[in-house]
Amino acid sequence: MAFSSIAKDFNKDSIVQAVSDFGIYTKQELSKKTNLSFPTTGKIVDELVSKGMIKILHDKRGDTGGRKAYVYQLDKEYAYSLCIIVAQGGLKAFVINMDNENKSHEEKPIEGNISVPDILEFLQVTLVHFPQIRSIVIGVPGAVHKGKIFLIDGFPELQNCDLQQIIADKFSIPVLVLNNMNALIEGFGDDRIENIACIHIGEKGPGCSCLVNGAPVSGFCGFQGELGFSPYDEKRTFREIALNGYQNMEMEQYIGRIAVQLITLVNPEKLMLYFSIDVDSFDIESYCRRYLPVEVIPQILYQDSYEADYITGLTKMGIQLLFASLR
Fold first, then answer.
1. Ramachandran angles phi, psi of 166, nearest 5°
2. Cα angle at 279 between 289 and 206, to 5 degrees?
């Protein structure tokens, strides 16, 4: 009985994966694509149609003089993913359908400290408006290990908070809580073999994320990228300088030192710099050339798309979690 159930789940996964490109297929085509028998394919497709996950299109294929086959397509409105950004000043929500199309963008300004009840209330309101939501992904500017925020500056009520488990228990929906830069780098991952490093300079300090040989790196407990703990000099860390408001700091040297460290550790092809604070113009490439061989200097890109790239990564993770929840 257990084996039969596992086999059925595997077969269903195969059908869902086959239609996840939102193509239009007959049952015969899905049978060939999945290597499942036609009767098995037909039974699973009928079940998914009855659930509303797959829709029957009115059009029929071909005209061979015989009976025309019905065609089927995954209904992109069957389920939604909710992506939340936790940031200074409030919360932002993005609701997307299965085809990564935006359905809603909501914001909730919050003065003072953001608390777990603030987040739960925001989630509750959004879930009422969109009952199709089947996955939740939340990005936070802190270190996260298995959904627990164990280090976060500027959000005292979220420190040591197992936010992922709290939300999962409250709403019984698959949840993923992750660091903002780990979310951002997910948007760059694809089938190409690439080495990319991203540095973000924010009010509370620096953070980074890396794509190594095409795969995001997060470390064994989610601490990868917390560059703020590295010593700037014999007296201060990068984090301490940031928390002191970058007072009397030459930002070219501050960011340059971070860049040199990252280049020696990761040797990226591209180094992307994001800023959430105002900084004067400077030339990081020239700074790096003072200390590094010219051959290892990456292409350095100054990006003004931090939030857009952050959202791209979050929504990608939301779609992955969404499809995993349907299997």
1. -60, -45
2. 75
